[in-house]
């Protein structure tokens, strides 16, 4: 489409003509908005619109719509319950309610992988908006984190429902641990999403790298196996290094909030199956994750001016 341009006629009247394609190509791209995450918060109405459109596009053409967000995780929980507790026999006296142990970890892992992978692809998938609108480009990875959170809420509600059926006894420390685990996951996923989103514009291999890394996350956290197995198989020194993984810490935090409260003796379960200083270590890692978000945003701001031309 050509833009109209004004030109002064010989009689003093204004003549409107159409710009040529060559003139349009010579125009500069939209100037980037580099105000960072604060500008994203200031333009939250645009953020809400972007999140809503992303969610609607995922369920476009379906009859049940957002109900699938509840059906799929519910079926997944039933499958894992049948496989691990009925078929394999996990969840006895030594590992009570193992299906809850597994599913609570799955909630956090799903939130992280959706945030990380979605954030990595966010700039490329919104190239038409980036090259035309002067919006803060950090908005796209942030919107993917919020979309991931929206899809994680049904899994969390199903987890709470199952825990209540099993006699869940929540406590303030456990709820604070679960909230801390979710916050740690959000900050970590957002920082990686910011870095990988802009890196993926310059080299598309980073999208494949992100997918590969998220595959390792599933097996590098105490979800399908208890943390005590790491201690028993590899000893205390290796187990201490294992806890440097922030996603393992996030999974243990949410298990402290939900799984331990469904067991017969929550205090004994925590003492046996969870490491010491869990909450303190979670606070430290959350602080580090906040610093990572700041550093990731600065790197993003340095490179974003070259994003439109690479897209």
TrEMBL record:
Q: Which Pfam families match?
A: ABC2_membrane (PF01061)
Q: What GO terms in the biological process aspect are recorded for it? A: lipopolysaccharide transport
Membrane-spanning regions, if any? 63-84, 96-113, 148-168, 175-203, 239-258, 278-301
Keyword annotations from UniProtKB, A to Z: Cell inner membrane, Cell membrane, Membrane, Transmembrane, Transmembrane helix, Transport
Record carries keyword Transmembrane: yes
Indicate the principal place this protein occupies in or around the cell: membrane
Residues covered by the ABC transmembrane type-2 domain: 64-303
- List the GO terms this entry assigns under cellular component, sorted alphabetically: plasma membrane
Q: What is the protein name given in its UniProt record?
A: Transport permease protein
Species per Swiss-Prot/TrEMBL record: Nocardioides piscis
């Amino acid at each position: 489409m050509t833009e109209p341009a004004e030109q002064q006629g010989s009689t003093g009247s204004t003549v409107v003509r159409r710009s040529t394609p060559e003139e349009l190509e010579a125009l500069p791209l939209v100037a980037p908005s580099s105000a960072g995450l604060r500008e994203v918060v200031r333009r939250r109405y645009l953020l809400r619109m972007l999140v809503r459109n992303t969610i609607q596009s995922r369920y476009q053409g379906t009859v049940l719509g957002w109900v699938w967000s509840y059906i799929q995780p519910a079926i997944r929980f039933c499958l894992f319950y049948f496989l691990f507790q009925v078929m394999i026999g996990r969840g006895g006296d030594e590992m009570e309610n193992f299906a809850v142990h597994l599913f609570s970890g799955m909630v956090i892992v799903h939130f992280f992988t959706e945030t990380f992978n979605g954030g990595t692809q966010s700039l490329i998938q919104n190239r038409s908006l980036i090259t035309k609108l002067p919006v803060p480009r950090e908005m796209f990875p942030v919107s993917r984190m919020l979309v991931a959170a929206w899809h994680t809420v049904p899994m969390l509600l199903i987890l709470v429902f199952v825990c209540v059926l099993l006699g869940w006894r929540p406590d303030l420390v456990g709820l604070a641990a679960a909230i801390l685990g979710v916050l740690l996951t959000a900050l970590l996923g957002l920082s990686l999403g910011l870095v990988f989103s802009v890196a993926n514009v310059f080299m598309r291999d980073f999208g494949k790298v992100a997918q590969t890394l998220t595959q390792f996350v599933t097996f590098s956290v105490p979800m399908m196996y208890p943390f005590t197995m790491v201690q028993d198989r590899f000893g205390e020194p290796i187990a201490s290094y294992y806890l440097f993984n922030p996603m393992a810490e996030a999974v243990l935090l949410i298990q402290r909030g939900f799984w331990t409260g469904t067991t017969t003796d929550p205090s004994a379960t925590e003492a046996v199956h969870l490491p010491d200083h869990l909450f303190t270590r979670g606070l430290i890692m959350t602080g580090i994750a906040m610093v990572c978000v700041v550093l990731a945003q600065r790197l993003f701001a340095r490179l974003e001016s070259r994003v439109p031309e690479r897209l």
